[in-house]
Amino acid sequence: MASTVEIVSFGYLHDAPPAAHLTIDLRHHFRDPHVSPELRYMTADDAPVRAAVMSTPGVTELVEATAAAVAAFAAGPSGGTVTVADGCAGGRHRAPTFARALAYRLTTAGHCVTVRHRDMDKAVVQR
Known about the structure:
The chain has about 130 residues and is α/β, with parallel strands linked by helices. The chain contains 4 helices and 4 strands.
């Protein structure tokens, strides 16, 4: 069943996660482009970052699993917008890349999707 979906990418190091029906934590299980000096100051707007994130084992499976969870929420009797928040450390690499991949997957399934990157344009967190 198609629904309206809002996806918000964010960085845990900037602020608390936004309110959501589903919150996906990408910090511990997926390759962090921040550790590569050549990718650190790039964002998900840059193809090398998207390639690094999407080539990490498990990411595409998580996109599919999250899309299935969204469909389950949408099938419920209450209806309304389903909100997905996905976060990484700084919100510049993994989270916005994942958000875009999920949005593409959900859009092709007929959902009406909006994406907001809360922290992607913030300064790189020095860690």
